[in-house]
Amino acid sequence: MEKYRFDISHKPDYSFLTVEIPSGQTLKVEASAMATMDTNIQMKTKFKGGLGRFITGESIFINEFTAQNGSGEMTIAPSAPGDMEHVYLNHETIFLQNKAFVAADPALQIETKWQGLVRGFFSGESLFLIKVSGLGDLWFNSYGGIIPIDVKDAYVVDTGHIVAFTEGLTYTVNRIGGYKSLFFSGEGFVCRFSGEGRVWIQTRKIQPLLSFLHPFRPTKS
To answer: Per CATH, is 5-211 categorized as 3.60.160.10?
Structure first.
């Protein structure tokens, strides 16, 4: 049963989360994501994730917001322009790409998962995933829109389009095509999922945007 009343507005381009925190309850939120809050909400910053989150480029801090003397409302704005999804985990596990976490019930366990060199480094993606498990509400975001896909046997997704996937899926990372395709086709590595579960994909990738903007960067004369 969901603990928090919430609304996600401005989907799918600039999703904005409004959450009502019950009196005496707490919400974990990614650092720098809070936009507004009622005056009876108190914030504490806690060190989370250690070296794993530091290496991924994520903040090593998570803010905890607690409503005191009555319920309180806060709004949350993720850093990336894109969509946002909510899932309620019922003693389940979900894996997020390292930039996707937005907010969660403190009852959920949030930890960094090592992917290994083959899956991580050679895929061109992060060496780490965020593993979230337990009972409670979870919100995550993307760059671009989010599309959920139910996998019942096998499915192939470009690694840069993966937002999240459920624990029931196993995966391997492979090149698509040969080495010539890797360097000249514009395509890179893909995740080959197998099993039964759900994958959430994003409609855009960060790397092509960076390549598009690269010629416009300021340069020294």
So the answer is: yes
